[in-house]
Amino acid sequence: MASKAGKKILLVEDEPSLVSMYQAAFRNSTYELLVATNASGGLKLAQENGVSLVLLDVIIPEAEGKVIEFSKRVGFNLLGRLKKDPKTKNIPVITLTNLDSPEDRKKASSLGAVDYLIKANFLPKEVVETAKKVLNKK
Amino acid sequence: MVISAFGISSFITALLSLTQALFIFVKNRDLLINRSWIKANIAVSVWSFGLFFVVSSNSRQVAELAQNILDISAIAIPVFFLEFVVRLSNKEKKNRLLVRFAYVITILLSVFSFSPLFKQGVEPLGSFQFWINPGSLYILFPIYFVVLNSVSLLFLLIHYKKSSGVTRQQIKYVMIASAIGFVGGSTNFLPQISHLYPFGNFLVTLYIVIITYAITKYRLMDIRLVIRKAVFYIGMGIFVVSAYYLVAWSDYTSFGGPFTLGALLTAIVFAPLFLAGFVFMSKKLKQLSNKYFFASLYDYQETLDKFSKDVSSTINLPEVANVVVDTVQQTMRMDNVGLFVKNKHYEPMKIIGFNESNLTRMVTNSRCSDFISAIKKPLVYDELVRNAQNYNYSEEDIEYAKEQMKSQDVAVVLPLVSKGELISCIILGKKISRDAYTQEDMRLLESLANHAAISIENARLYNEIQGFNETLKYKVDDATKRLRELLKIKSDFLTVASHQLRTPTSIVRGMLSLVIEEKDLPNDERERFISQAYEGINRLERIIHELLNATELEGKKMRMDFKKVRIEHIIEEIVRGLLPLADQLKVKLVFDKPVRPIPKTLADPIKLKEAITNIIDNAVHYTAGGNVNISARRKENQIVIEVTDNGIGMSKNDLRSIFTKFTRGEGILQVHPNGTGLGLFIAKKMLEAMGGTITAESKGKNKGSKFTLTIPIK
Question: Which SS3 state, helix, strand or coil, does residue B425 take?
């Protein structure tokens, strides 16, 4: 195991298979991967743990046990909240989703996401590389 | 022959009466009232010719023959006049007996006139060559003459008092004329009764003149145009003849003959002068006759030309209506005029003078509308009163029309017909002069109406096209809006579908990439990843299956593979399959098995299972942390399955559209993360193909839902 440089990355993702997949992918990196499966959990982790980067899914439940609705892009809502909160507003956010409409891309960038990755198009290791790039730039 | 003043006056009366009778005969002999006037006129004429011959002839035989003829015609005058009066005052039916009685007396008297008791031939008398030598009972004739004529005059007087407008004027003139004529004519009885000179014979001429005036000025007998033309042509004839004689006279006096050089040179100068004079005279004569005989002051052709020019300069309906109304008003000189255009109903376009709301109410009331719509020729109030038989209406209709026209003081209703259909009507009030509408007026009005009908029809079509344009634009807008909505639905669906396809893809792809590339992956994790990839592929397959199913179901008849199935078993199987998902979402999924077994039914087990799975799967997904209850029972010859949950429920809008293919509006994106939004649509199609139904109810958002499925027992 590589030494942890203390940099923490928060993954907000509700699909269990994908969570374990990204955990495996980040295991060999220098970053610590925190996981939240809903929006309120994600906000809490981001506020309290000195997170350096957020990988954010868009179609997620608001809280534990809540139904997921397509019409509510809860992920975008969380992104907005992160950018408003002085504690979290400087944390770069990469949108990690399977939505691919121009409107969604526009929405993400207008809310302050630094990148927009389609899960089906990016292998887990490519996601790790992108995260690395963003963190190094900072 | 001896020419006397009496003879000349008789001759003139005879000629004038005959001429007038001929005029009326040529112009309008169809009118019953005109026919009786023609008869009376001929009788007067024959009588006057007879008088002329009696007093002028040297031969006793001629005088006696003339006396016989004049007696018979004089005896006939009162009865013809009575008939005329009765017809003029529209009292024909009531007085039929009286007229017949008068005819009988007339015939008896005529026969009697050959008897010596009536006359004993003719004898010279004073300045006359001959005069009647009366018999002992001759006096019966003057008595009959005076009595019957007095009756006629009384009729006229009564009718005069009751009538108004033009009719009143007409009766006035007929009354004055006949009174003068009869008084004058009666003086011819004086020589044989009291040896006095028949001084009043000259007056008989006067009656013709007065009647002629009434004909021209008040449209009596409807022939005034003929007289106007006669006046014009006679005037022009006099002008040409006088010009000819003037030239001929000056040629002879100045140059010695018309074929001299001087005369020819003068002719060159004179010819254009004559032409100018001719044009000037024709104009002046028209003006003169208009001034003294006729109320109309317009030039027929000029009016039409100007109207055509004005009306063709616009296609706008209100402007066309303006031009029409103004032209009619100015040429006919009236205060009140209105134009209505017929769409479904009559709509007022322009109304001057009339009380707008009263007139509109009259025209638009259904009976009046129907009446107007059936009008083929102008409806003239005076005509309606005097010559109702000229119109093809029932008496009741005529009375109604008269009453309506009178109530608003309408003189003429002018129909505007285009392509055989009435499209508009012009309502005309009385002329300012209170003159009647002449035949020429009516001719002009009808020409104007024809022109106006074309223009109004054009304007109306133009309006209609504009209306169509607007409707079309509205429809295109509407269709565009719907297309946009559909596009939105399509794009929303594509978003969901691609997201739902990509999620399992990203799992499979990601997992396999890890398995291949991460060499130091522990074996248990490697196996777990492979099995997750396998699950992802299954999920992908399910979604593809749903998508294809939905596409296939659209508009096609489903192929069914019917087998005997037991519904409880199918539901139990479904619930077992969904329990892991329910556990994951913390849903309490319960099937309340019926106490009494439900009979087997004929259905396609695979499709039935898919349909019910879709419903329950849907309920589980939207009821995280809640309860989903399933029940099944038999109701008559149906199986009723109820899936009740206390999940997120549905708004009324959603309820309406949840079973459509790509649900619209707010509902569309409520697809759960593993679905395609097609599950309910597919379930409904499948159940319907098996003769079943599916309905959904919900008390609202967050108040749970209940899906009720029925399947027939076969």
Answer: strand
Question: Regarding predicted confidence, which is higher, B456 or A65?
Answer: B456
pLDDT of residue B708: 93
Test mutation, A21, A22, A104, chain B, max B CBs within 10 A: A21
Q: Which CATH superfamily is domain B5-222 in?
A: Rhodopsin 7-helix transmembrane proteins (1.20.1070.10)
What ipTM does the predicted assembly reach? 0.91
Interchain contact, A71 vs B666, CB within 8 Å:
yes
> Helix B523-553 crosses helix B439-517 at what angle (to 10 degrees)?
160
Contact A71 B668 (CB under 8 A): yes
Q: How far is A109 from chain B (nearest CA, A)?
A: 18
Helical residues (DSSP H) of A1-138, grouped into ranges: 16-26, 39-48, 74-84, 102-111, 124-137
The CATH class, in words, for B563-712 is alpha beta
Q: Domain B300-461 is classified in which CATH homologous superfamily?
A: GAF domain (3.30.450.40)
Q: Write down all domains in chain A, each with its CATH number in brackets.
A: 8-137 (3.40.50.2300)
Q: CA B654, B622, B656 angle in degrees (round to 5)?
A: 15
Residues of B with CB under 8 A from a CB of A: 491, 495-496, 498-499, 502-503, 505-507, 509-511, 513-514, 517-518, 521, 525, 528-529, 532, 535-536, 585-586, 621-625, 647-648, 666, 668-673
Kindly report, residue by residue over B311-332, the tens digit of the pLDDT: 888 888 888 888 888 888 878 8
Question: Residue A67 and residue B624: Cβ atoms within 8 Å?
Answer: yes
* CB-CB neighbors (< 8 A) of B648 in chain A: 67
Q: From the candidates A60, A67, A99, which should be mutated to test the interface with B, based on the most B CB atoms within 10 A?
A: A67
**Does residue B418 surpass a pLDDT of 80?**
yes
- Give the pLDDT of residue B664: 37
A26-85 confidence digits (pLDDT tens): 988 889 999 999 999 999 999 988 899 999 999 888 887 666 666 678 999 999 999 999
Instruction: Give dist(CA B710, CA B638) in Å, integer.
Output: 6
Q: Which residues of B touch A120 (CB under 8 A)?
A: 502-503, 505-506, 509
Q: What are B475's two structure tokens?
A: 């429809």
pLDDT tens, residue by residue, B362-398 = 888 888 888 888 887 888 888 887 777 777 788 888 8
Residues of A in contact with B657 (CB under 8 A): none
Rounded to two decimals, the pTM is 0.45
Please give the full DSSP string across B3-32, using - where no structure is assigned: --HHHHHHHHHHHHHHHHHHHHHHHHTTSH
- Provide the residue ranges of all domains of chain B, joining segments of one domain with +: 5-222, 228-292, 300-461, 507-553, 563-712
Cα-based distances in Å from B297 to B63, B294, B433, B520, B681: 50, 8, 12, 119, 82
